[in-house]
Amino acid sequence: MSYSSPLLSRAGAAEHQGATFIDAAGVAWHYGDPLVEQRAAHNGTAIVDRSQRRVIAVAGPDAGEFLNNLLSQKLDTVPQGFSAGALDFDIKGHILHQMDLTLHEGTFYLDVPAGQFESLLDYLTKMIFWSKVTVKEADLALLTLLGSQKNSGLPIPASAVYTREVDWQGVPRTDIAVPRASLVDAVSELEEAGGRLVGLMAYTAERVRAREPELAADLDNKAIAHEVPQWIARGQSPAFVHLEKGCYRGQETVARVENLGRSPRVLVLLNLDGSAPSLPAIGDPVELGTRQVGRVGTIVHDFEWGPIALALVKRSALSNPQLHIGDVAASLDPDSVPSDEGPKAGRAAVDRLRGR
C-alpha cells in the first residue's frame, strides 16, 4: 500500500509530477510556490515533511556491536544522542544502503528512503544470529527544519521521540522524529512558533547545494564511498565512513582507495543553462565534447542559482569547467571540486619497497 502524508490535504499541496528516482512519493513536492518556500530556509525556519522515509529500530544489549560489525560507521562505543550517517556495502565495496542514524535511550534509529527499507530490514534481520538485539520498524515520521532554528527559538514538538543536528555543508538542519499519529499536530506546533511548512523541492534544492547525494538518484550500482568526499570521516566529523574501526563487508575497497589511490569519479555540483527549453533527466550522460565523462543525478531549480544538479564525473574531466548534458550546457562549480589529499601512505610504502 502506497504512503500518503496527511499533510497532502493542505491547500496548494502538490506531489512530484512524473516518475523520479528521488525519494518523493507520498509527500508534498511543494505547496504552491516552491522558490519562495526555499527562501524560507534562508530568512527563517522551513519545516519539511519527510515522512515518506521509514525508520528501523535496533535495540538490545548488543545493538552497538551488532551494527558496528555491519555498517561503515563506528557504533560500538558511541554515547547516547550520537547521530551520523552510515553505509552498507556489498563485498566489492559498492553502496547498497545509505542511512541517517541516531542513538536515543539505548535504541539505534536508522531512517532510510522508502525504497531501501525492505532490503535493509531483511539484511539486518538475517544477520542477527546469536546477537542480543531486536530489529523492527519504528512507527515514526521524520520532519526536517532548515534554517536558523536554534536562533529563532522554535521549540521542539512535545511529541518528539528524538532529534539530531545534521552536520552537512548546507543551511543549518535539524531532523525530528515524531510518532506518525502526531505528525499533523507536531507541524502545527512548529508553525504556531513561526516556522513555515515547505515542500520537499525546497529540501532537495538545499540537499543539492550541500552536495548530499541520495543513493537511487545520484549514485549507481558501481558507486563507492570515496566518490562522495565528505562521506569520509576526517577531523571531528563522524561523516558516513569511519576509517579507524574493525572489519565490515566492503571495508577492503574503502581501505584500498584511502591508502593507495583515489576514486575514479567524484560527486560534483553543476550549474545548468536555465535558458534551455527542457532539463535533462536523472541518469543522462554528462559529456565533454563527444566523450561521456559522467552521469547526472538530482536536478532541481534553486531560488538563487536557477537549475542545479549533482553529477558523478570522472576526475580527468574536473579541470574543464564546461560540460554538457545533451543540449544543455553545464558549468562545474569550482567549490565542489575536492582538494588534493596529498600522497597516500600506502602508495608511499609501496614505492619505498620498489626502491622508487
TrEMBL record:
Residues 341-356 have a biased composition (Basic and acidic residues). Residues 331-356 are annotated as: Disordered. Keywords: Methyltransferase, Transferase, Transit peptide. InterPro entries: TrmE/GcvT-like, YgfZ/GCV_T_CS, YgfZ/GcvT. It comes from the Bacteria. GO terms for biological process: iron-sulfur cluster assembly; methylation. Signal peptide: none annotated. GO terms for molecular function: methyltransferase activity. The keyword Transferase applies. Coiled coil: none annotated. This is Aminomethyltransferase. It comes from Corynebacterium flavescens.
